[in-house]
Amino acid sequence: MIGELYETALAGRARPEIEHADGTTSPLQVDHWLHVRPGDVSIVDRCKGPTLDVGSGPGRLTVALAERGIPALGIDVTPYAVSISRAAGALTLLRDVFGHVPGTGRWMTVLLADGNIGIGGDPIALLRRVRELLTPLGQALVEVQPPGTAQRSEQVRLRHGSQTSAWFPWAYVGADQIAEVAVEAGLSAAETWSAHGRWFSVLRPLKE
Q1: In sequence order, what E strands does the chain have?
Q2: pLDDT per position in the chain (208 positions), as tens?
Q3: CA dist 66 to 16, 59, 97, 140, Å?
Q4: How far is CA 136 from CA 73, 187, 207, in A?
Q5: How far is CA 195 from CA 4, 86, 93, 169, 198, in A?
Q6: What are the angstrom distances between the C-alpha of 114 and each of 23, 161, 207?
């Protein structure tokens, strides 16, 4: 979710919505990214070793990991989000997950929280990249949609009144679909759990 509208939402100056290609809208859950959410502890508890927080946004999970003494790096493509994260004390870089990422192949844990499995609109391509980032003994912790959610990719944009962002691709994967998607990316689903209405899955590299 790139662009000025996203940054103004993070700054509290606007409350844009997500507009879908069919014309429907849904809330942009900015408050969920700025503050600790119910269910966060369950994912932080499962982080092991050096952890990469992909799409870290304002950095609440990166900060939570650092506070536990877990080496953590956040990466995000939005400069303002990165500045918020750094101001909160998180080690964060302005990076695209598909670009150069420090420690590629050596991360013990990669996080895709807050629906970030949708980045780029192609979950298989994203998870293949995650597999490249992980050590062979590592794990990806992925937040997914509730069971029964239709798996889909679509074009979305942000809207606030007459102001809109550019369209960008996004994807949705349910808890009952992630295992199949993971296998296509060379990963296996080792655990799926729910906490406070949120759903997550642990993915581990398949042995070659």
Answers
A1: 17-20, 25-27, 51-54, 72-76, 92-94, 107-112, 134-144, 152-160, 163-164, 168-172, 187-195, 198-205
A2: 467 888 888 888 888 999 998 999 999 988 888 889 999 999 999 999 999 999 999 999 999 999 999 999 999 999 999 999 999 999 999 999 999 999 999 999 999 999 999 999 999 999 999 999 999 999 999 999 999 999 999 999 999 988 999 999 999 999 999 999 999 999 999 999 999 999 999 999 998 6
A3: 31, 11, 20, 18
A4: 19, 10, 8
A5: 32, 28, 29, 27, 5
A6: 23, 25, 28
Tokens 């050596």 -> residue = 106
Tokens found for residue 12? 């509290």
The residue written with tokens 């942009």 in the block is 28
